[in-house]
Design a protein that fits this description.
It is a single chain. The chain is α+β, with helices and mostly antiparallel strands. 20% of the residues lie in helices and 36% in strands. It is built from three helices and nine strands; from the N terminus they run E-H-E-E-E-E-H-E-H-E-E-E. Strands 1, 2, 3, 4, 5, 6, 7, 8 and 9 form a nine-stranded mixed beta sheet that branches. The radius of gyration is 15 Å and the shape is globular. The structure holds cobalt (II) ion.
């Protein structure tokens, strides 16, 4: 069911500072910031060749990463995203297996313009999992 690793997302309190770490200290290619108001975050992409890192900063009130940053004020790994060939089939199979899908269970459009769903971290070894339609 799982395809390739699409990205690892790191929540950060300061996107400019985080981009500087990846660009200047680590020598990576860092994109321009992209505001995603429907997800409550601003994101930059760090292209890694075989995958990418997304740096997420809260955007607006009630950002879904605000509570995470309160617990992890200097930032931290927030979620990991796997591609699946059929998102709805994957969702239905996981629900039958007892996994919890976050939100109303319907896909939203993710940062790359493709449908995504999030799975409860308690069902996946303490890691918030995002599934993205390949
Ligand atoms: Co993501």
């Amino acid at each position: 069911m799982l395809g390739r690793l699409n990205h690892v997302a790191i929540a950060v309190p300061d996107l400019d500072a985080a981009g500087t770490v990846y660009r200047d200290m680590l020598g990576a290619a860092v994109s321009a910031p992209q505001a995603l108001p429907q997800h409550g975050v601003t994101v930059v992409f760090v292209e890694m060749g075989n995958s990418r890192i997304e740096l997420l900063e809260p955007l607006g009130d009630g950002s879904p990463i605000a509570a995470f940053l309160e617990r992890n004020p200097s930032g931290g790994m927030h979620h990991i995203c796997y591609e699946v060939p059929d998102l709805l089939a994957a969702r239905d199979r996981l629900i039958v297996a007892g996994a919890r899908v976050l939100g109303n269970g319907e896909p939203k459009t993710g940062a790359h313009g493709k449908p995504v769903l999030f799975l409860h971290p308690r069902d996946f070894l303490g890691t918030l999992v995002e599934l993205e339609q390949a």
